[in-house]
Please model this.
Amino acid sequence: DAGVTQSPTHLIKTRGQQVTLRCSPKSGHDTVSWYQQALGQGPQFIFQYYEEEERQRGNFPDRFSGHQFPNYSSELNVNALLLGDSALYLCASSNFGNEQFFGPGTRLTVL
Amino acid sequence: QQQVKQSPQSLIVQKGGISIINCAYENTAFDYFPWYQQFPGKGPALLIAIRPDVSEKKEGRFTISFNKSAKQFSLHIMDSQPGDSATYFCAASIPNSNYQLIWGAGTKLIIKP
Model:
């Protein structure tokens, strides 16, 4: 079992650009949650997808959007990047109603 | 009211000693309290978790103590080892949220040989 995988590992973008991050959940999991972790801080919940729909959303602007595919994999899209979007983006998968398992994250740097 | 306050921010413990990290919360509706361990460049990994109907849970060298009346919970690492050096996060789950987690700010633990 490969666990939760994320791609790419690292990404560098400039302000105003758009970015797409990808997540493949652990085998057997149907729910994907995304978190933003700024340097030296705890993760902040962005949103959660289940059955290809956004089920929960944290306090993030509409520039942050997502998608879940029929195979349960997920994408996180961020438009109009700001310097403050630089962070580690974590994906966590679970079976709906059960504990989450985290991927290694994608390190996004916005210049 | 949705915050989880974690202390200390950093902690240095001698090998073989006991590491203690504390968290406090306000929302009495929180129903699940996990601790995560994160190594540099890695995602958080679930270490141990507790629900409010239990006052203590032990798994190997790791113990959670939970004080419902004080709205506090803590992680104890017995016989701390250099391999335990990592950042530890407490968290709390919002009820009926499918494990949507509110996280503490983290504690950087260093175990000195």
Q: What stands out?
A: The longest strand of chain A covers residues 87-94.
